[in-house]
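I am still learning, so can you show me any protein sequence you like together with the matching structure tokens, please?
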Amino acid sequence: ECPESFPPLRNESAVRVLQGRMKGIQGHCNSCYMDAALFSLFSCTSVLDSMLFMPFPLCDRNVQGILRDEIVNPLRRTGFVRASSVMHLREQLTDKGQCSSFTNAEKDPEEFLNLIMQQILGIEPLLKLQSGGQKQQECYCYQIFMDKQEDLVVPDVQQLVERSFLSSDLKLVEIPSCFIIQMPRFGKEYKMFSKIIPSLELDITDLLLDSPRECCLCGDVATLECS
């Protein structure tokens, strides 16, 4: 356990602390979905650090303490988290989520995020989406859904998000404080892409609802949008 708080790792310190053998979050008993999600959310960014400290309305302080002291702080301090620490969290999620398989089965990361953010901590949804003029939807993360496209062999995240939003006729109602994106995957047997290049920056200009944009022909403010 590591009760002292540590900031997220950046630049050279991230490479020094996280690179090498016995680094990252140790996997055990189908924990990969949770290990990858926790590493992505906390190792090198503080955007969701409120999850670790704020007393939200529904907040379970025991789960919050395990997440902060047994997982996030050790990860940032030494670059390594033992599987037993993640199992401790999984056992608590099993108790709170009324689902016995959190300790042994492979889950969808979205199921884990919804449980810990909504039911256990009581955080407001991070994303507001609208599809084809229908009612606004609220969620905690966005999962990329798209058909196989032959021209995309090794895509980057920017391409996948844009094409997924286009195929689903989706728009962001507002700029999100945190944009969690789940890559397309289909379990152990089939993966749509063997590799996906991380986009270090994400341009969401064309994904925003009613956002002023430049006309591609004349350069003035656009009045019409063509998909």
Q: What stands out?
A: The longest helix spans residues 61-78.
